[in-house]
Amino acid sequence: MIIYGVALLSGCLLLGMLMGQALGLMLGIDANVGGVGLAMLLLVFSSNSPRFKTLTSDNAALGIRFWSAMYIPIVVAMAAQQNVAAAASGGLLALTAGVAAVVVSFALVPVISKLGAGEDEA
Amino acid sequence: MMDLVSSVFTRNSLIVAFAVIGLTIWLSYWLADKLTAGRIHGSAIAIALGLVAAYWGGTVTGGAKGVADLSLLGGIGLMGGGMLRDFAIVSTAFGVQLSELKKAGLAGVVSIFAGVIVSFIVGAAVAVAFGYTDPIAITTIGAGAVTYIVGPVTGEAIGASGDVVTLSVAAGLVKSILVMIGTPLVARSIGLSNPQSAMVFGGLMGTTSGVAAGLAATDPKLVPYGAMTATFYTGVGCLLGPSLLFFLVSLIF
User: Fold this and answer.
1) Is the ipTM of this complex over 0.90?
2) Do residue A93 and residue B47 have CB atoms under 8 angstroms apart?
3) Is the pTM of this model over 0.80?
């Protein structure tokens, strides 16, 4: 049943969001700390576990795969509702700060990736 | 006639969004194939078209939600909003191997903290270069360079003025949009080609929308790895911004 996969996905998202919100509360901030990431971990665990087989195989898997195939269209819809006009009207300071942060962060990707590889070998 | 169309379209707004996005993606893949001979990915073009449309929508309506503020395209707001976006992001984790996640575990965690702190320092330095000397303003603008959520959260917590908060949101939006467009262009030169570097990338960039779109346009297989670390970034930023980072800035200025 396709709905089994969709329901599992929903359960993972809700549980992850609850944990993220609780984590935020414990840290004293009004933000969801990693709710989506925790939900993804829950889905990884359940899809790698034989106990959840009826919820992750055959037609149930199609219910999850449909949503991952909808990922790019949803991202395009997300892009279409960004506040681009506000970003463009933020002036030179906002532009410089945003661009500089991105350039420096891009440059750090290979540096920190290597750090991970080094730890592995050690 | 126009009334008839608009009443059907607004009552079925999410369905309109599916149709419009479907057409946009078809057009983008056609353009990618004909104009760039497949050198630029179709989804990169679709995301760029989305951003151009959002700019146009924002200037026409004066709203904050791009084309979603046009009543005929209101469904785009639901389709691309936080709820369905998070649902689709989580679904991409289906089929991910635990071993891949473990391999980049430490580097992933390091990248989240490094990303928040480095973006903050860069943003704060730019604020200082533009003549700001007030620690509250410097911290808020630095936090904006982290993400457009961390900026206002930090600004409100430490009592920044409205125009400084607006600046911090704008800085965060510039970052997010640049990550969407820039990622496929620099992917090869920063070694963004495997799950481990994608996790580090997500942790360093942190903007969920930027990472989500940037990786989608680079290689959809990398999306779950980058998205997983990126979702912790804003939380860490909201935690550090008004506390440790504000404290450090206050010591200097």
Assistant:
1) no
2) no
3) yes
